[in-house]
Amino acid sequence: MTDHSRKAVLHRYLHTALQDLRWKQDGLSEYDARRPLTATGTNLLGLLKHTATVLYGYFGDTFDRPHEEPLPWMANGGADNGDMWATSEEPREQILGLYQRARAHSDATIATLNLSSPGRVPWWPEHRADVTLQQIMVHMIAEAGRHAGHADILREHIDGSVGLRADNSNMPSAAAAWWHDYREQVDNAARRWGAS
To answer: What are the chain's domains?
Structure first.
């Protein structure tokens, strides 16, 4: 397999994970896209804002490929965890646009560089700060996949929507009654062990 074909495979996996994360926003109200659904405040729009921020960091700063995007939440004095939620002054369309531009910037970096192209992650420990495009692509596939999984669970809690992608649910097709019975079966098994 050539470097070009290896890069194409990695890029396809990254693109898929980023797309999966994005489509979990579709059809939601502003409130549902923003509302915290965990004790740590995890929310769907915040996952996009965070992922856009790290895309700019890893495919921009790491490879000395500057971007023009203002990221005030990353500046000194920015709010703690400011990349993980949308403020009331940040419309959803603004965050969606940021995400799309970050993806385009990342795609341009990937298209321009070779898998062995060197970069430096200034916020990583010194002993592992020197990286290659291949390392960063693998890192971002893992990062995007993790956040897509978060988004799966958040979206299911909002309105019951589940599935891998818009075009492939990757879920057994079953009626609501089957899922209810299945959940009860799982819960009963857990309770049996909880009683021990």
So the answer is: 3-194 (1.20.120.450)
- Residue (of 57, 54, 34) closest to 144 by Cα position: 54
Retrieve residue 28's tokens: 């939601």
Tens-of-pLDDT digits for all 196 residues of the chain? Answer: 888 899 999 999 999 999 999 999 999 999 999 999 999 999 999 999 999 999 999 999 999 999 999 999 998 877 789 999 999 999 999 999 999 999 999 999 999 999 999 999 999 999 999 999 999 999 999 999 999 999 999 999 999 888 766 666 677 777 778 778 888 988 888 888 876 6
DSSP 3-state of 168: strand
Phi/psi of residue 118, nearest 5 degrees: -80, 150
Q: Are the C-beta atoms of 177 and 37 separated by less than 8 Å?
A: no
pTM, whole model, 2 decimals? 0.90
